[in-house]
Amino acid sequence: MSQPSQSNPNLSNSALPPNSREAILQRMRDSSKDEVILEEMRRQGFWPKDEPSPEQAAALALIEREGELVRALHDLSQQLHQVEDPQAALKAMRKERMRLAREKREVTRRQQAQRRYDRALAWHTQQQNDITYLGEDVSQGLADPRCDEARLASKGLPHFSSVAVLAQAMGVTVAELRFLSFSRNVTRISHYRRFTVPKKTGGVRLISAPMPRLKRLQYWILEQILLKLPVHAAAQGFVAGRSIVSNATPHTGQAVVVNFDLQDFFPSIHWQRVSGLFQSMGYSKQLATILALICSETPCDEVAVDGAHYFVQTGVRRLPQGAPSSPALTNLLCRRLDTRLSALAQRLGFRYTRYADDMTFSAADDNQLARLLWQAKQVIREEGFTLHPDKQKVMRRHKRQEVTGIVVNQQPAVCRETLRRFRAVLFQVEQTGPTGKHWNGNENVLAALAGYAQFIVMVDAEKGRPLLARVRAAQLKWSAPETARSSYYRDFRTSSSKGIAPKGITQMAQRAIPIIELTQEQHQQAKQSAQQPNSQRAVPPVDPDVVLLEQQQAPPLAAHADTPVSVYLQIAVAFLALMLIGLLSLNYLLSAGSIVWVCYCMQKRKFSWWGFLLVLIVCRWLWQQI
């Protein structure tokens, strides 16, 4: 629809089609004929865009002044009519008040919609760059983003100024970081796969293996933060360059060996202790909370309600046994425990090492044994751990002394009974295959035998190498070809530690950006604009010379472009009828006449049955005369 000029904003009438005769007459009545012509010239581009000449400026001013006077006269006549008719005046006043009220309501609706949109956009922006809530009872520290940059620099740890910077370093979005660290009391999603494995001493051990998305972040925390911090010299487990052999070697040839085992080692460490550890490194409470939630799990029970599975929280968040970050966290959390126990052992003449939850003391005599047992239990209790009541051992020289599965009476060695049983199982596998056999409760007997053979090589290389060669030969004989699983997990850890998404992990979908809500009137205007024909829409002003040049160079339009298809069908049917009549009656003049008549009809794009009958009669009469 063409827009009126600034001098006359009320010329168009939306109730009538813009190009109809009634609309044009109404526009002339509202202003003047000359002003309507001037508007059309501007819309079509025939009025110059540059500065008009003095004659054009004078004519323009005269036309605009005439339009203003006509409109003023029209308004005065309407007011005079209302004064003469009180009922009409009252009706007009009520109509005007209703119009103003509708306009005010529309303005209010648009302002409210704008305020809702501004709030939604601000919330969306905040959610894309910050984390302010991660669940009940775990979000207290999210309001404190202050880091100790000096402490982080002294420890050689990376500094993150905000949650968005941390997420970018991990290679994820803030939304995905929130999803993986959110703590829920009841949920249908679990980030861990839980299963049990048998223990050597009986019973089962609960393993919580993280899903790939969460495991990726735990690997990143392990490589970029945890492994950069030193652990105590007594800690032998899960430390590069240390093993169960280095854990057992200091206790070789001692008169007494004491072994303690911590009960529920990983589950006894709650997420608050992990958060405190990250804060002690120099990270803010906000980042420490997020990192601790990523490295911990919620103990839960899986229940089914109406066919839907839910995970219901049963306790406080804790370290999962099975996450790649848990062993390194325990070593760092136990530094004070190791320091106190090492000092105690040195003061009483003992040696001390710890492999995960297995603590070992040894000495050349047992004079201070009772004092060691009492004071060690006190230290362990004060550090927040609990000793396993059934796994405290005091092994003297005249009996077998075993530390983390290695006999240490004279030198590190493998238990003879276990080695004999290993050779028996290996011989059976070599003879009849792995079907129906197991090793230490593991039904994947070939992998279990290979692992134990490597353990023997680590303890006693002379005995272990021949056994490992036999296991490799059995694997080649009885197992399927090796797959690319080992390389996949190695690449998974490498990519995760660099903040790169491993293969198979896609980017989570982003939440849609909020859009402003339209009022009912705006919806109607948009609908009318969409339904408006192109011919009725505003035409941008163009140069008249360009318009004339395009009109001269444009090809002529088809004269009969609007001919109905039915006309061509009638011509075709009549032509076929004349041809058949001519061929069947051997009237070649009729066939030739039908061709001439069809060419004439196609040129004129017209058809008449009278013309059809005329051609038929004339051609038959002429053929009879010939």
Rg calculated over all Cα atoms: 46 Å
How large is the share of residues in beta strands?
A: 5-15%
The averaged pLDDT comes out at 85
Report the structural category.
alpha+beta
| Ends apart, CA distance between termini | 67 Å
Contiguous low-pLDDT stretches (5 residues minimum) are 1-15, 542-559
Task: Please state the overall shape, judged from the principal axes of the Cα atoms.
Answer: elongated
GO molecular function: metal ion binding; RNA binding; RNA-directed DNA polymerase activity
Biased composition (Low complexity): 1-20
Keywords: Antiviral defense, Magnesium, Membrane, Metal-binding, Nucleotidyltransferase, RNA-directed DNA polymerase, Transferase, Transmembrane, Transmembrane helix
Protein name: RNA-directed DNA polymerase
Walk me through the topology:
Elements: H1 21-30, H2 33-44, H3 54-84, H4 86-129, H5 149-155, H6 163-170, H7 174-181, E1 186-187, E2 192-198, E3 204-210, H8 212-224, H9 244-248, E4 256-261, H10 271-281, H11 285-294, E5 300-305, E6 308-313, H12 326-333, H13 335-348, E7 351-355, E8 358-363, H14 369-382, E9 393-396, E10 402-403, E11 406-407, E12 413-414, H15 416-432, H16 445-459, H17 461-478, H18 485-497, H19 520-531, H20 544-553, H21 565-584, H22 588-604, H23 609-625
Antiparallel strand pairs: 1-6, 2-3, 4-8, 4-9, 5-6, 7-8, 10-11, 11-12
EC number: 2.7.7.49
Catalytic activity: DNA(n) + a 2'-deoxyribonucleoside 5'-triphosphate = DNA(n+1) + diphosphate
Region (Disordered): 1-32
